[in-house]
Design goal:
The chain has a single domain, classed as Glycosidases (TIM Barrel). It has 15 helices and 15 strands. The two termini are 18 Å apart. The strands form four sheets. It has an eight-stranded parallel barrel with strand order 1-2-3-4-5-7-10-13, surrounded by five helices. Strands 6-8-9 form a three-stranded mixed β-sheet, covered by helices on one side. By secondary structure, it is of the alpha/beta class. It is 37% helix and 16% strand. Bound molecules: beta-D-glucopyranose. The site of beta-D-glucopyranose has 11 residues, from loops.
Length: 445
């Protein structure tokens, strides 16, 4: 089956700095918003925190060897902004740069291609103090940070992802407050969206200028949205949800503007736009990273002012779900790929994350996570179907290497192909990891 994807198809595994590194106060790193958020009572399940996480900061060599032994040729990781710039901007922390240099060199020595994500949700707290993503100055700060990374790592790293799931930052971080910095309020949503969308394009421009031959993308979450009924109100609600979840960050970059047609509320974003911004929002990305986990059913709701919609949870719909109650929907993956293929400006799609959390248990030293194996098989079949029908998909990254700090869920949700015992940091490859090893066996690297 692997052969069906073609020789050039890139198989990778994705991670994020904050979820695995630990060592949060080592070698000059300062707090990011998640360190502060995790110290607040009741924000993270079981009071968990990421001070040690998977201790990847110290164990990256063995962990990368494991990536190699599982057969993946591509490794996606993110850079912790506050390791590089403890104040968010200004003075560079050389030990932070040194860590990522060691990590990149280790990848290369193993024949693994490194993929850098510049921003995976861990904003330096120093910047949050001055408004974080609400403050338009974030565009300058982000450009400075991007340039430092480009200059430090661009000689060896070709693949770059500017932002990871900006919608999660705007929606969960600054609107519902479920994620750091937990700054709740619908009035934050539009300015934060606009500043993220500006940074998305600006980061692309910085990389284009400083890294010759860079392959530049950015990663967005996406979910195929179904209306709960054929009623006009539900169909309109589904279009609004689609505008928010799938169109909000790609369309301005493609020069199409924000998707106000489906969601008039978005016209208020003009209050935060300055002259020339429509141009500044554009960037011609080499690829779009799509991250898909589940599809969604929504209905109209009078109880939700502004959005006027609510999700019909999968758990109430009698459909198969993962351990987190997310609908298992390979057909949703297929549909969303077809939907993105319709954009003329999309050159290539990389599935930059896909995976599932289930309740794993260790029996006689083994983790037989057959549900996860089935999940991957079914989602990969959907990806293949879309590819065979002409969707330009160049690669697939499984989420994720290690069980890790799953944001507000703490360590309660395990997504890894490798089980981590957080008391001892012992790693054990799960059945799903072994399945990938077999599947990728012939991969030429
Ligand atoms: C994020 C990851 C996260 C995963 C599973 C994605 O939204 O990029 O950081 O762990 O989903 O929730």
């Amino acid at each position: 089956m692997k052969e069906d994807f073609g020789e050039d198809f890139q198989w990778g595994i994705a991670t994020a700095a904050y979820q695995i590194e630990g060592a949060v106060h080592e070698d000059g790193r300062t707090d990011c918003v998640w360190d502060v958020f995790a110290r607040k009572k009741g924000k993270i399940r079981n009071g968990d925190h990421a001070q040690h996480a998977c201790d990847f900061y110290h164990r990256y060599e063995q962990d990368l060897e494991m990536v190699r032994s599982l057969g993946f040729g591509q490794f996606r990781f993110s850079i912790s902004w506050s390791r590089i710039l403890p104040e968010g901007h200004g003075t560079v922390n050389q030990p932070g740069i040194d860590f990522y240099n060691r990590l990149i060199d280790k990848c290369l020595s193993l024949g693994i291609e490194p993929w850098i994500t510049l921003y995976h949700w861990d904003l330096p707290q120093a910047l949050e103090k001055t408004g974080g993503w609400k403050n338009r100055r974030i565009v300058e700060w982000f450009a400075e940070y991007a340039a430092i990374c480009a200059n430090a790592f661009g000689d060896r790293v070709r693949n770059w992802i500017v932002l990871n799931e900006p919608m999660a930052v705007a929606g969960l971080g600054y609107t519902t407050g479920e994620h750091a910095p937990g700054d709740k309020g619908i009035h934050h949503f539009l300015p934060v969206v606009h500043h993220l969308a500006l940074c998305q394009a600006e980061g692309g421009r910085v990389l284009r200028q400083l890294v010759p031959n860079a392959r530049i993308g950015t990663a967005i979450s996406c979910s195929y949205v179904y209306p709960n009924s054929t009623s006009a109100a539900d169909v309109r609600a589904a279009r609004r949800a689609d505008a928010l979840l799938n169109r909000l960050f790609i369309e301005p970059a493609l020069g199409l503007g924000y998707p106000k047609d489906a969601f008039p509320f978005l016209s208020n974003i003009k209050r935060f736009m300055r002259e020339g911004d429509r141009e500044k929002l554009k960037f011609d990305f080499d690829f779009w990273g799509l991250q898909n986990y589940f599809s969604m059913v929504v209905q109209h709701s009078y109880l939700a002012p502004v959005m006027w919609l609510k999700e019909v949870p999968a758990t109430l719909r009698n459909v198969p779900v993962t351990g987190m109650g997310w609908e298992i929907s390979p057909v949703g993956m297929y549909e969303i790929l077809k939907q993105f293929q319709k954009y003329e400006g999309v050159r290539e799609i990389i599935i930059s994350e896909n995976g599932a959390a289930f309740k794993d248990s260790v029996v006689d030293g083994e983790i037989n996570d057959h549900e996860r194996v089935t999940y991957f098989k079914r989602y990969l079949a959907a990806v293949l179907k879309a590819k065979q029908e002409g969707v330009k998909i160049g690669g697939y990254f499984a989420w994720t290497l290690l069980d890790n700090f799953e944001w507000a869920h703490g360590y309660s949700a395990r997504f890894g192909l490798v089980f981590v015992d957080f008391n001892t940091q012992k790693r054990t490859v799960k059945e799903s990891g072994k399945w990938f090893r077999n599947f990728l066996k012939d991969s030429k690297m």
